[in-house]
Design a protein that fits this description.
By secondary structure, the chain is α/β, with parallel strands linked by helices. About 30% of the residues lie in helices and about 25% in strands.
Length: about 475
């Protein structure tokens, strides 16, 4: 199956059932943010333009300059070219995160192909499923000398040939300019499970990826002095910006392995030793990091940190309060976004005043993004006023192409954008309940399918959970509705 098979053009997407008057109201109430960036940028082009002696990437065994990274990417591109990889072909990259994975991504970009990760910790059945559904033509293994048994078995089952990134050292560098042929060209595909558990291959375009990378650079004020820790497993969307974002501004990526990520003391040492200035973790890991450092009286190990981003799950107020109290020199960003929209669509820098709210804000839109809060009524969707709960829809440059080979689920989540003339012409339905606070920031309320009616009154179970979780004796909570006969 090719990458474009099953992807729907704008004209084949469903129309949102909304009255013209509510279209105008939604436009007026939308949260929007425009910012001019060069969406035609290719990361490999920026890598090759950066002074070659600057440090670019490192992992636990190697450190490459920009010149070294560019050379390795071109050798891997030569290896893939020998396998017949060209524009639009899907190339899987498997193994443990490290320098070689980043070089492989840049090699795929050089050839105009499409990246899909196959995490080295996945079971063989999932590897095979992803390779088959993605239509991968080759699997590049990185990190270990030989692919894991699961990767090898999964590739065999899917009938996909395997090449080792290490073998590229024997290749002459591939020559030629980066083959970025269009802003709407698919750049990567990530598989998310969804409510059914069946993997969905979310396809992200070049313009969406680049826009998100620049969103991070703009909002974090990133420069060539920043060092970002790459902590996310390959199958997670945040791994993309963690691998690539510093390379657009001359900074450095330091890849942190699983063993170090799961050992808070070792992680803090790595942050200090490598001069890490930006870290992104799920809130659970932020809490564990604070617990371990507090026990060791060693929060000073994070002394060089500028930013901590929390994402992937709701950030509890108690965790945010502890961060502001114990690591006050490093800003805390609450980030939110779906894989289908090139990762984060909102950022919010947590302030002391936010701690008085039941739930922390998820913020305002990242650059070139439009956010709409709508409620589904019997006669169609209508725009929500500030303070009114509704469902979040996303428009703008970051909205992806849909799900590869899955037009039905694409139609369930993607619509023609009725509100604005955007680069993609698409609108994504997140399935998340939100409301706009008086100051113009979004607050996350939970999934829309957790909204219930009791005696005719709409109630958000997530809001009840948030109240209960404020008690210091409550570590975790789940609220369910139980009907009494």
């Amino acid at each position: 199956m090719g990458i474009l098979e099953g992807l729907l053009g704008e004209g084949r997407l469903p129309r949102l059932r909304i009255a013209p008057a509510d279209v105008e109201r939604a436009r007026a109430l939308a949260l929007t943010r425009d910012h001019r960036v060069d969406l035609a940028d290719a990361v490999i082009t920026r890598v090759e333009r950066t002074p070659g002696d600057r440090p670019a990437v490192r992992d636990e065994t190697r450190r490459l300059t920009y010149a070294g990274l560019a050379a390795e990417a071109r050798r891997i591109a030569a290896l893939l070219d020998r396998e017949g990889v060209g524009p639009g072909a899907v190339v899987a990259v498997g193994g443990q995160r490290g320098v070689s994975v980043i070089a492989a991504f840049l090699a795929i970009e050089l050839l105009g192909a499409v990246y899909v990760p196959a995490d080295g910790n996945w079971p063989a059945k999932r590897v095979a499923n992803v390779l088959e559904r993605a239509g991968a033509v080759v699997l590049v293994t990185a990190g270990r000398p030989e692919p894991s048994s699961a990767l090898a078995e999964g590739a065999r089952s899917a009938g996909v040939p395997v090449v080792r990134a290490a073998d590229a050292q024997e290749c002459a560098p591939w020559e030629g300019p980066a083959r970025v042929t269009g802003l709407d060209q698919p750049r990567y595909m990530l598989f998310t499970s969804g409510s059914t558990g069946t993997p969905k291959g979310a396809v992200v375009e070049h313009q969406g990826m680049i826009n998100h990378l620049y969103a991070k650079i703009v909002d974090l004020g990133m420069t060539d002095r920043d060092v970002l820790a790459q902590t996310a497993p390959l199958g997670f969307d945040i791994s993309i910006w963690q691998m690539l974002c510093p390379l657009l501004c001359g900074g450095e990526v330091t890849v942190v392995g699983d063993a170090t990520c799961y050992d808070s003391a070792a992680f803090a040492r790595r942050v200090a030793e490598h001069g890490v200035t930006i870290v992104e973790l799920v809130p659970t890991m932020v809490r564990l990091l604070l617990d371990d450092l507090a026990g060791a009286r060693d929060t000073g190990a994070l002394g060089g940190l500028r930013w901590m981003l929390a994402t992937g799950e709701e950030l509890p107020t108690q965790v945010a309060r502890r961060w502001l109290d114990e690591v006050p020199w490093a800003g805390l960003v609450n980030a939110y976004g779906p894989t289908e929209c090139s990762d984060d669509v909102t950022h919010h820098t947590v302030a002391a005043a936010d701690l008085e709210l039941l739930r922390l804000p998820i913020g305002t839109p990242v650059i070139n993004t439009q956010l709409y809060v709508l409620r589904d009524e019997e006669d169609g969707w209508r725009a929500c006023e500030r303070g009114e709960a509704g469902e979040l829809f996303v428009g703008g440059t970051g909205v992806g192409r849909g799900y590869a080979g899955d037009p039905d689920r694409t139609r369930d989540a993607f619509y023609r954008d009725p509100f604005a003339s955007t680069p993609t012409g698409r609108l994504y339905r997140t399935g998340d309940a939100v409301k706009v606070l008086p100051e113009g920031t979004l607050q996350y309320l939970g999934r829309v399918d957790r909204q219930v009616k009791i005696a005719g009154v709409r109630m958000e179970l997530g809001e009840i959970e948030a109240v209960l979780q404020r008690h210091p004796s409550v570590g975790a909570v789940a609220v369910v509705v139980h009907e009494v006969p």
